[in-house]
Each structure stands twice: as structure tokens, then as C-alpha cells.
Amino acid sequence: MRARWWLIAWLGASLANAGETVAPPSPAPSAPPPVVETAVEAEDDTPTITIVGDRFARWDRTRWYAEMQIGFPLPFPLYAARNNEVRVTALQVRTELFCEKAFRRGKKGFEVHCDVRDLGLQAVVFDSVAPHAQEVLDEYDRKISEADLILFASDDGRINDIGFEGFEASNNRELTQREGARQLMLRLISGFHMKVPKPENTYDGQWVEHNPALLRLPVVNQVNGLSFSPEGKGASVQYETFTSMGSSYVVHQIDRYKGHQVVQSEGKGLVTDGAENEDQGNQYLVNLHGVALYDPSSGIMTERVYAVTGETTASSRLSDGWGGSLYFHSGRLQKLADEAPASKVGPTRRVAPPGVEATEALPAWVAME
Known about the structure:
about 375 residues; mainly beta; twelve-stranded mixed sheet; two-stranded antiparallel ribbon; 3 helices
């Protein structure tokens, strides 16, 4: 199994700083450099992940820091509850969560409630003139922070779905707004999703996971017709949001390294942007590289970094006969100690596109490193 150089550098820094609250760097959205072999200590037996005791212990009154940056395949619409909207092409999300088990969902599931203790959104706006962009971003920040994030967790490590409690929606526009917020948080939470196999289903420390959450795209579909504001001040195009379709897989490799259980992940797939007419949609070749740390004493994931890149195929509408329209999604999650200080999530604001110099009106996009 191979790992990217930045994943190896993160792993070394993370283990060197074990016990500190300083978070290691997350991957940048640029194309990964050439691969190198990973050094792993020799062991006499093949390691496995064994969840000891409560299989939902990672959600038993635990604190988490989570961050991600994403470049959307198509401009992603964010709606205010009244009139205003903004389309974003790239977004950074940082948050601190406090999670606890709420209700059992059958024999193998649990409903987990997470308090969004703080949230920071930094967005690249598609439209050059967007006078209400800050208002829309502030509204999303406020509504997500005031709501509880609901996770539907399985006992094998997967997150089957998420939702909100306290994010009220009384009309179609507010429902669309809430779904947009859910799609953003779904991308953030997808790093928690890793199916842990039974020991007998691993082969030399490897196992395969099909259609993982990290290899799904957030997509939108324009709805025919226009929606007019109640005051008659204009119209705006309405969108539906949903996850992509396609097929993908990830190969996970577990090894021991300096007393830790390290899982390296390499995946790929072919997914569509969810267009109603698949022959007119866009197809993306996606790749995943990631590293996770598991606590050997409990079998619980304590940290993970990942990077997903996607590129349209030549037959896609966006390509016009040439492959090249890019999608990126990278991030990090980390279990925090009870006594750790509050995480710094940064402000909610509009920023300049990646690679573009800052102006007086727009701060620079700073890649998560």
C-alpha cells in the first residue's frame, strides 16, 4: 500500500505531538506529488481493528474538531430564507462538535446528536457582483450553529445519513436552504465514515469498502421555472440538491506504527453529477488518498486526514471533448481531549478564489495546511 508524501508527513507530526492540542496540517487541494513507500514497523502478526466494549463509544459525550475545503464541480447555490441567494464555487468549513448518543436505531444503529459549538465558513462566490453574499453566509452560520446535527451511525463505523434538529423550515425555499446546509455538513461528516470489517474479512491487513461517502459528489439540479418573491421584487432560478450516482471502492490497509494502528486508504471510482438525463450529465473519475489513526485499546478512530480529487471525462458536457474540469475535497477530523481549549474555527466571510491575490474587499483564500 502506498501513501502520499503529505500523509506521511502528517502522520509523523501527529505521532510526535501526541497529547498536544495543536492540530496537524490537512492536505492542500493541489494535485498530489509522486508516491513514496511508507515505512512500517515489522510485526509478527497481522493487526486488526477490534472495537472493545461499546461499539458507539466514539459518540459517548466526545469532542471533535472537523474541517474541510471543497471545490464544487458546478456552482453550488446557498439561499437566504427571504429573497437573496449566492452561488459558491469553493468553500472552507471549520467546526467543533460535542456529540452524544441519543436513541438506538435497531440492533446495529444509533442516533447521535452533535452540538455545533462553533462554525466558520469561508466561501468563494461565483458571481462578481454579490452584494448580499455576507448576509447569506451569516444566515447559514447562524442556523447551523443553533441547530443540532443528527448522525445516523452504524456499529461498523459507517455514517448512513445526517439531518438537523432545530433547523426550522416552513416553506419550499426554507426546505431548499436546509437541504443545502445538510449537503455541506454531509461532506464535512463524510470523513467519519469508514466501514470496519470483521477480522475474518481482512486479508493480510487489507479490506475493500464499496461506494464510500467520501467518493460521492454534492450536486445540484436546476428546476424548470422561476420562483417569485412574495413581495414581487423579482425571480430566481430554483435548484434541487442531492448526492451523486456511480460506483467506487476503497482499499484500506492497516499496520502498526510506533504503538498506533494506522489505516491507509486508496480509492477510485466513476461517479456522475446526478443529472436527470444521465446521457447529458457529467462523469467524474475520482481518487481518494487518506490516513487514519485508531486507538488500539478501544478500536476507535481518533484522527483522519483525506484528499479527494475528481476530473470530468472527455464525454462529459463540461469537458466539450476534453477532460479537465476539476473537483477537490480534502479535510481532517480529530478527537479532542475533554480539557483541550476551544478550537479556533475562524470567521465566516467571502474570500478571493484560490491563487488570486487578496484585495481590500476580499481576503485571500488560505489553503488548509
